[in-house]
């Protein structure tokens, strides 16, 4: 009975079966979901204001009042972790959306239109040859003041970070997408669609886009991890969000000053970053296995 | 092969010029004024003189041209002067740092050894650890060692250096007190004792950097070994009665190393980028720290020059990787 069901399983069910088999991916997905839910819903339960300085309760250790202690200004570490997670994860998500969007656009254009292929791929190569971390730092230094003056310090830096990470990380996606499109373009079903008079736009939308979804999903997942690390690195180097705005990287960087006296304070934001990135990487690995039909046959 | 190398080198010139232009335009278009930090009491006249002194009087294309001439023509002459005691570059304008009022390249040459020591030894150590791990993982695929190795490399891949750094400092410097937790850049190696101190202070930063390298390269090594292990020529080698060590080391490993060597070449500039963070964590006074300092001080000539040097490293690593691929793999023909 179950065998027959398995035979009739649709693509979705097959995907789930394959995904569940990858235990690391399942755990990764669950951990990531818990972290996201925790930082989203956590502040409703744990209602201490992350920005409220309780000077008399500063530098406290673990207690019932402050489960993870307080920092040098008496701000609650747990509340700050949740607030920091919100900004770190939302920066990661938005930057990933931007970078995947750009990558898909450029990759599809390069793969589909022969005339654009050369110039766009040279552009991709050029971007790959740029020293990205130094350039990111330069962009942050040069544009943070004017942007934060025009749309407010926090919104300005948010837009700037998302934009900067997005335009420096689309290249791998563009290459993968171009490769997939090039392979698909010569297949019979695309020719058939063209023969019945489908326009370029509808071929791209109806036939090509659904078929290149799997690699895009995988690189999107891995993109979140890279974006979170990059944002934390920028904040750690002091070129990210302003000091009063909690993000994981910023908290880690603030805590390193007090590392000798309060080593525990470095631990929590660092653990949060690492756990998030690790779970997302495992999730991406599992998705790659589950979505790639060539690997499915090999893995039996 | 020679024609290929020449062609690649010639083609890299426009790429590098374009990159230099992009960096220049980025710094140029940025809405920031180097005089913004100056006190308001300075009169407009003096302000204008200061701008002239910083070389800001000329229009942008001329300043870009000046920078190119200084970087590609005058600085090599200075290098030749220093090496052979000639005086080719005497009196010629060099790239001057706004922050230190000294030639940018001199500061870079002072600081480069610090970075190279830490980054170089970390990279070599990382590779030396990564290769055996990757080989054994692939040889015993799906074994406990393989699973554990995959987990450890994924962890090493996911934990950012700005967390492993403080973590190792807390563990080894604060708790155990084995190693100093701030890198002493003025330290001179003169005898055995100072040498051991140098080794001791290098251990933590090298550990942080090599963890990243190990994680990346052992993954590649494992994948590349797996690609080769079930090939026909391996079966032939076993059928001939060669020992298992012979089969793995001289047949499989040699073929698997081809892509790995190119990855190693490609990864070199990236580790310089990673060193920016590690240098900040441990207070190593290298070129990464110089870049951060210049960025914070709005020292545009230093930023431009250093960023461009990073770009040169990337472009040449790419060329080296491609050439190595051609040399190692006889199936690749570039002509």
Describe this structure in words.
The complex is a heterodimer of chains A (about 300) and B (about 325). Chain A has about 300 residues and is mainly alpha-helical. Chain A has 14 helices and no strands. With about 325 residues, chain B is an all-alpha fold. Chain B has a domain of about 220 residues: MetI-like fold, CATH 1.10.3720.10. Chain B is globular, with a radius of gyration of 24 Å. The chains are: A mainly alpha (about 300), B mainly alpha (about 325). The interface between A and B is large, with 46 and 46 residues. Chain A: Keywords: Cell membrane, Membrane, Transmembrane, Transmembrane helix, Transport. Chain A: Pfam families: BPD_transp_1, OppC_N. Chain A: Belongs to the binding-protein-dependent transport system permease family. Chain A: It is found in: Cell membrane.
- Can you give the helix content of chain B as a percent range? over 70%
Give me the oligomer status. heterodimer
Corresponding CATH superfamily of the domain at 109-328 in chain B = MetI-like
What's the CATH H-level superfamily name of the domain at 86-290 in chain A? MetI-like
In N-to-C order, the SSE pattern of chain B is: HHHHHHHHHHH
Total strands of chain A: the figure is 0
């Amino acid at each position: 009975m179950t065998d027959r069901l398995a035979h009739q399983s649709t693509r979705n069910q097959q995907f789930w079966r394959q995904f569940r088999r990858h235990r690391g991916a399942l755990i990764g997905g669950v951990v990531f979901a818990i972290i996201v839910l925790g930082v989203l819903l956590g502040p409703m339960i744990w209602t201490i204001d992350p920005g409220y300085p309780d000077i008399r309760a500063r530098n406290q250790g673990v207690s019932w009042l402050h489960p993870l202690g307080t920092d040098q200004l008496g701000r609650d570490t747990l509340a700050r972790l949740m607030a920091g997670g919100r900004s770190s994860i939302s920066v990661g998500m938005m930057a990933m959306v931007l970078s995947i969007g750009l990558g898909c656009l450029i990759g599809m254009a390069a793969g589909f239109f022969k005339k654009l292929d050369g110039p766009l791929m040279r552009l991709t190569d050029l971007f790959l040859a740029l020293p990205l971390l130094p350039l990111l730092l330069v962009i942050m230094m040069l544009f943070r003041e004017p942007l934060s003056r025009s749309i407010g310090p926090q919104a300005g830096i948010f837009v700037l970070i998302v934009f900067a990470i997005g335009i420096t990380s689309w290249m791998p996606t563009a290459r993968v997408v171009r490769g997939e499109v090039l392979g698909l373009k010569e297949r019979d079903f695309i020719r058939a669609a063209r023969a019945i008079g489908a326009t370029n736009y509808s071929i791209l939308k109806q036939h090509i886009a659904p078929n290149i979804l799997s690699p895009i999903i995988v690189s999107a997942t891995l993109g979140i991890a890279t974006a979170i690390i990059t944002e934390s690195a920028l904040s750690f180097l002091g070129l990210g969000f302003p000091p009063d705005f909690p993000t994981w990287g910023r908290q880690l960087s603030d805590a390193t000053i007090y590392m000798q006296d309060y080593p525990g304070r470095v631990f929590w934001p660092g653990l949060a970053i690492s756990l998030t990135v690790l779970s997302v990487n495992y999730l991406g690995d599992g998705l790659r296995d589950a979505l790639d039909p060539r690997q499915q046959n090999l893995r039996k | 092969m020679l024609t290929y190398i020449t062609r690649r080198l010639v083609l890299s010139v426009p790429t590098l010029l374009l990159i230099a232009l992009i960096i220049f335009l980025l710094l140029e278009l940025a809405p920031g004024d180097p005089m913004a930090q100056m006190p308001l009491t300075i009169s407009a006249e003096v302000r204008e003189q200061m701008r002239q002194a910083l070389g800001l009087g000329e229009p942008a294309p001329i300043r870009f041209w000046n920078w190119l001439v200084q970087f590609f023509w005058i600085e090599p002459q200075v290098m030749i002067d220093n090496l052979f005691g000639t005086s080719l570059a005497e009196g010629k304008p060099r790239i001057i740092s706004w922050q230190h009022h000294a030639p940018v390249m001199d500061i870079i040459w002072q600081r480069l050894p610090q970075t190279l020591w830490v980054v170089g030894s970390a990279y070599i150590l990382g590779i030396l650890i990564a290769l055996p791990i990757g080989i054994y993982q692939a040889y015993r695929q799906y074994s406990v060692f393989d699973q554990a190795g995959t987990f450890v490399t994924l962890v090493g891949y996911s934990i950012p250096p700005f967390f492993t750094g403080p973590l190792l400092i807390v563990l080894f410097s604060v708790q155990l007190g084995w190693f100093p937790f701030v890198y002493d850049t003025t330290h001179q190696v003169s005898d055995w004792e100072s040498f051991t101190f140098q080794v001791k202070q290098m251990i933590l930063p090298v550990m942080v950097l090599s963890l990243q390298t190990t994680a990346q390269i052992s993954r590649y090594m494992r994948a590349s070994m797996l690609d080769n292990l079930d090939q026909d020529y391996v079966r032939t080698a076993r059928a001939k009665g060669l020992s298992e060590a012979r089969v793995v080391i001289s047949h499989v490993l040699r073929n698997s190393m081809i892509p790995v060597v190119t990855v190693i070449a490609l990864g070199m500039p990236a580790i310089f980028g990673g060193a920016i963070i590690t240098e900040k964590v441990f207070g190593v006074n290298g070129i990464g720290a110089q870049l951060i300092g210049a960025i914070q001080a709005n020292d545009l000539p230093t930023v431009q020059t250093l960023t461009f040097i990073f770009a040169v490293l990337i472009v040449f690593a790419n060329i080296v990787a491609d050439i190595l691929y051609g040399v190692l793999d006889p199936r690749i023909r570039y002509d």
